[in-house]
């Protein structure tokens, strides 16, 4: 039985990686897809028919995360080789290598203005980098186990991070302090991200759960138990109304956050699904996993003009403004057991005219600069900040004493 027109449809497969897909991201213009893999390569896919794919060679171990900059002129990647790389996503593939972490790096994330990059590592730290000067700025170091993911809020004022210490932390980028902490007694979050309006966060749990937290109320709003395996990744639709999840149970799930229910279960992968992402306008989404395949899906159920979506969300980025109607999710935690009526889509059965893309691949070897930040330099940076604070305090004290005399 064919899918109804409003249901998600699998459009294409992409094949080219030689090991599991760990991460993927759409370019801002929606014409390209970047993917990362256990095979140590990044790949850049062009959606034009018969277009070549670029394979970027440079990392020496598993590539764990990839993301386009907001303008699409840079591509950031993280690796188990303890480095972060910035690539120019073209046929030359020039790159800069950043070395500051002392253990595998698990995630990269650009701020919305493209000025900063946040990286999370198994050295338990989150590091923030200045993209204009391509230099290390500061570390956030309150996690007590491996940090798995770090993301900027849409307005850049906050960073959310998750760790195997079973906590999710919210950091203020101005004070560089942890301002909120969510903890779990059962599992840890593999992945975490802000909603498009910045008022909520979603977490993907190793305990098979998906949770939605309101950061204004510090409250758990929704709690979904719809997977039978660990949840590895989540992605918000740009409208903020839907969330897609990827799990080790081999499925994708689409949740309606306004109604608080599961609406689609998507089959298609053989084995665990490690990553999923909506395009910037929400008209497409893509998934990748252990089967080395990248699946490209057309959303259909809630297509919105991306400019309208961005315009609407920009009006709602300030936490001191009253909640918008669309921000008001169900006010009590919802625990969903997966028995709710839902649409299941198995493209292997239902799609007969699927386009499989195995384009010619061009290998691009990276030759570029390296930015190495030693532990000493990091400590010096922190010491410099402390010295500035001390000097400022001394000046204030002197000023006060003069007035008393």
UniProtKB/TrEMBL annotation:
It is found in: Cytoplasm, Cytoskeleton, Cilium basal body; Cytoplasm, Cytoskeleton, Microtubule organizing center, Centrosome, Centriole; Cytoplasm, Cytoskeleton, Spindle pole. Keywords: Cilium biogenesis/degradation, Coiled coil, Cytoplasm, Cytoskeleton, Repeat, WD repeat. Its main location: cytoplasm. GO terms for biological process: cilium assembly; microtubule-based process; multicellular organismal-level homeostasis. The keyword Cytoplasm applies. One of its GO terms (cellular component) is ciliary basal body. WD repeats lie at residues 14-48, 56-87, 98-139, 140-181, 192-223, 224-265, 266-297. Plays an important role in centriole assembly and/or stability and ciliogenesis. Involved in early steps of centriole duplication, as well as in the later steps of centriole length control. Acts in concert with POC1A to ensure centriole integrity and proper mitotic spindle formation. Required for primary cilia formation, ciliary length and also cell proliferation. Required for retinal integrity. Acts as a positive regulator of centriole elongation. This is POC1 centriolar protein homolog B.
